[in-house]
Amino acid sequence: MASIKDVAAEAGVSVATVSRVLNSHPSVSEEARTRVLAAVEALGYRPNAVARSLRTAQTRTLGLVISDVLNPYFTELARFVEEEARALGYSVIIGNADERPDLQDHHIRTLIDRRIDGLLVSPADGGSPLMRDVALGGTPMVFVDRWIPGIDVPVVRADGTGAVKDLVAHLHGLGHRRLAIIAGPAATTTGNERVEAFRAALRGLGLALPDAYIGQGDFQAASGRRATERFLALADPPEVVFAADNLMALGALDAIRARGLRVPDDIALAAFDDIPWFVHTDPPITAIAQPTADLARAAVRALADLIEGRSPQSVTLPARLVVRRSSGGAATNQRSDR
């Protein structure tokens, strides 16, 4: 098995430089970092977790980096993460990426400097080099909700494919044929996954998803408003707008009301990510509910297993459709994470 000295020799750098790279220290040059990571890959080097634990005392602290603390879904997720971590004897430090990869990486470096025992991350994009460095460096890490393909860490997420299919079938059953989607960022796994699930569900019913019915959003309310304004300006506007997260759905609702239109009489509305106050909007909003509490608990337990030297598996839980008046159907008015 390769040692850290072997990696240093292969990369042509000192052992100290290898250690700094593996611990995501910002003082290392990009050229040295690239050589060290190439050597790690070539030699199949993995840090010795036992030796690492002897060098660093546990702090009983976890880091949680979420995509947007103003998004009610992530606020709930953070609450349940903190609750489960406390039950297991850990404290949690939270960093808000605000959907910015640079801010996400800043929080990760800061948390590692504070010697947290492990990281829970919902990535703000799909290609952070730092995240790969952290995984290779041996810091226990779990992705929650979103993930980065190619980075070998446990992923705890919800699968919304079946719920999206149920939503499209529900809307189709109400007579709707022109369905539009406000997509999340293409750089995120959830952004891509929800669009593809929507497209596949439409295809299964013999319906197309024209480019004009795909609005590009960024998981923020303003982008939902802009996309919906564009939909409503079309010569043949959609009968339904499906927003790929809750904030974009609220932006869509604002745009519809600004046109003097009524939901669902003039246009139907649905969202991914149910939140408690969707029942209090007028009308209450049909949504796909993720099991937020169960996701948070599973993620914390997986991270605790990693910290304690076990090898947890990734976890995928089903999301489900909650029908309310915004789509025009009979309401079920229930949530799945309580």
Which outline best applies? elongated
Radius of gyration from CA coordinates:
22 Å
Structural class: alpha/beta
* Number of contiguous helices: 12
Low-confidence stretches: 333-338
How many beta strands in the DSSP annotation? Answer: 12
**Main β-sheet: number of strands, strand sense, barrel status?**
6 strands, parallel
Spatial gap, N to C terminus:
47 Å
- Beta content: 15-25%
Strand order of the largest sheet: 2-1-3-4-5-11
Mean pLDDT: 90
Q: What letter string, H or E per element, gives the SSE order?
A: HHHHEHEHEHEEHEHEHEHEEHEE
- The proportion of residues forming helix, as a percent range, comes to 40-55%
What does this structure look like?
The chain has 338 residues and is an alpha/beta fold. The chain is 43% helix and 16% strand. It is built from twelve helices and twelve strands. The strands form two sheets. The protein has a six-stranded parallel β-sheet with strand order 2-1-3-4-5-11, sandwiched between helices. It is elongated. It starts with a helix and ends in a 16-residue tail after the last strand. Mean pLDDT is 90; it is low at 333-338.
Topology:
Elements: H1 4-11, H2 15-22, H3 30-43, H4 49-55, E1 61-66, H5 72-87, E2 91-96, H6 101-113, E3 118-121, H7 129-136, E4 141-144, E5 155-159, H8 161-173, E6 179-183, H9 189-204, E7 214-216, H10 221-232, E8 240-243, H11 246-258, E9 268-272, E10 286-289, H12 292-307, E11 315-318, E12 320-322
Parallel strand pairs: 1-2, 1-3, 3-4, 4-5, 5-11, 6-7, 6-8, 8-9, 9-10
Antiparallel strand pairs: 10-12
